[in-house]
Write a structure and sequence with these properties.
alpha+beta; three-stranded mixed β-sheet
């Protein structure tokens, strides 16, 4: 069997090429490994967690994005144990409000509030209810919020209109001044407006967002 003899100069050039190729592959592999292992900042479209760090981020950034696209908010999906007995109570920083976005199966519930709370118990793996609050100094702002909720969340239009037209005509503090509208279900979630009308003092609407099956 004949062996082809490679001249010394060519042999050195081939060896140098092989070393260069090996070094290039090694550097490429290292670069790929570092990229795969490094921790990247969350994208703007990602949802928030409700761990201590997640709650602190919501407060400091002033935004909360929650994922209920499957019809519920699972505890483990937001970084909490499935048997957690309660969820966090999150307050906005002084003088600010938290911009809230809750993505549902068919739409999104939005609002801004100084308080965001989560109700559950250890027997269920999800949250029974997410609640936030709208506070109003004027009747006009409250009226606009109720009318918007009728079209956005599917609150009963007749019930809402009856309340809007009659609440200022009653003299009893228990008749219509505290009224519940809903639940509206157009987002694939149950959205309820609990109104505490306190004219001439500021009024409050508690917005409760729940799974359709409770």
């Amino acid at each position: 069997m004949n062996r082809k003899v490679i001249p010394g100069k060519a042999r050195k050039s081939l060896k140098a090429a092989i070393v260069a190729l090996a070094l290039s592959l090694a550097l490429s592999a290292c670069s790929g490994g570092a990229s795969g292992n490094q921790t990247t900042a969350p994208d703007a479209g990602e949802f928030d967690t409700l761990t201590s760090a997640g709650a602190e981020r919501i407060t400091s950034q002033g935004t909360a994005k929650l994922d209920m696209t499957k019809g519920k908010l699972e505890k483990e999906a937001v970084g909490l144990p499935a048997d957690a007995a309660k969820g966090p109570l999150i307050f906005a920083q002084d003088g600010r409000e938290i911009e809230i976005s809750i993505a549902g199966p068919q739409g999104t519930v939005t609002g801004s509030s100084d308080t965001l709370k989560f109700a559950t118990d250890s027997a269920r793996s999800d949250f029974k209810e997410v609640t936030f609050y709208h506070r109003f100094d004027t009747w006009e702002d409250l009226e606009k919020d109720v009318r918007d909720a009728v079209s956005r969340y599917g609150l009963d239009a007749d019930d809402a209109e009856y309340w809007l037209q009659n609440v200022n005509k009653t003299s009893s503090s228990v008749d219509l001044f505290n009224h519940s509208l809903g639940p509206g279900k157009s987002t694939g979630l149950a959205v309820t407006y609990d109104i505490a009308y306190e004219f001439p003092d500021p009024s409050v609407i508690s917005i409760r967002v729940s799974p359709l099956d409770g």
